Each structure stands twice: as structure tokens, then as C-alpha cells.
Amino acid sequence: MPSGFVPDPSSATSAPVVIRMSPMAHFATGFVALGLLALVPAFPAWGMALLVIPAVLSVAIARLRTVADRETVTARTLLGSRTVRWDGIDGLRFAKSAWARARLSDGSELRLPAVTFATLPLLTAASGGRVPNPYQ
After folding, report:
1. Which domains does the chain carry?
2. Are 120 and 76 in contact (CB under 8 A)?
3. What is the C-alpha separation between 63 and 77, in angstroms, rounded?
4. 111 φ, ψ to 5°?
5. HSE on the CB side for 18, CA within 13 Å?
6. Cα separation of 113 and 10, whole Å?
7. Are 134 and 120 in contact (CB under 8 A)?
8. CA 72 to chain centre
9. CB count, 10 Å around CB of 52?
10. Cβ neighbours around 102 below 10 Å, total
11. Counting runs of H as helices and runs of E as strands, what totals does the chain give?
12. d(CA 74, CA 98)
């Protein structure tokens, strides 16, 4: 928690902030499916099995998200989710990938799906100021 942090009592009952991938990403999975459909006549035995790839991508787009409220942050992945209290997060970092990683008190890292540098103001509001706003 940053030094000098004073919680805002008016935001104590604020709703959780949900950060997701854009639904427009489903169009990309449609183009992947069209490309794979070209392989079905050439390789009928396993060409149809390749169409599972765009379906899994579409499910991932719908499922991957980060939900943050005043007390916790939850990273939802394709197969599960993990919730961590803000007190257990030492800081955020951005690696070569576009999504943020939370550095936890125990030294491990938690990838925060769909959290980019541009969405940090949303986390600032949801965390009650625990995450600094880089744009101020």
C-alpha cells in the first residue's frame, strides 16, 4: 500500500470493475475459422478437428478477465480463477506481453488478463487508490 494512502469512504460500496478483452476479437476467430475451412477439403481426416481451435479461442475471449473491487482482485483464466487481496500485492509490472502482472508478497506473480497500461485508471478507481494512476 502506498505511503500516505487515505481510503475514500464514499467509494466503499462501489461495484466491482470488470476488465475484459474486446468482443471485437471474436471477428479474428471467425477469420481463423475461415482459413482453417480451406484445409478441410485437402485433409478431411484431421481438417475438421482443426476447427476446435477457433472455438477454444472464442471461449477464451469470453472467459478471460480481471475483476477488481475495493478489497480483492480476481484473475479469471480459461480453466479457473484466482483471487488475491490488494494487501497481498506488492506492485504491478508490464512484461513483453501486453497484460499486467501483479507481483505478490510471496514473490510469485499473477497475470491479470486484459489489464493493459491504458486500463490502469480503472484499477486505480476499483482499488481505492492502491494502484497509482500513471496519467495523473
Report:
1. 17-127 (2.30.29)
2. no
3. 7
4. -75, 130
5. 9
6. 28
7. yes
8. 14
9. 10
10. 23
11. 5, 7
12. 18
Looking up cell 485437402, which residue turns up?
A: 42
Neighbours of 64 (CB within 10 A): 19
Going from the first residue of the chain to its last (136 residues), give the mean pLDDT of each consecutive group of 10, the final group possibly shorter.
44 77 94 91 85 94 96 95 95 86 94 92 89 82
Contact 85, 71 (CB under 8 A): yes
In this prediction, residue 95 carries a pLDDT of: 80
Q: Is 115 helix (H, G, I), strand (E, B) or coil?
A: coil
> What sections of the chain are H helices per DSSP?
25-37, 39-42, 44-47, 52-63, 120-127
**How many Å apart are CA 40 and CA 48, to the nearest integer?**
6
pTM surpassing 0.70?
Answer: yes
Q: Which three cell numbers stand for residue 79?
A: 480453466
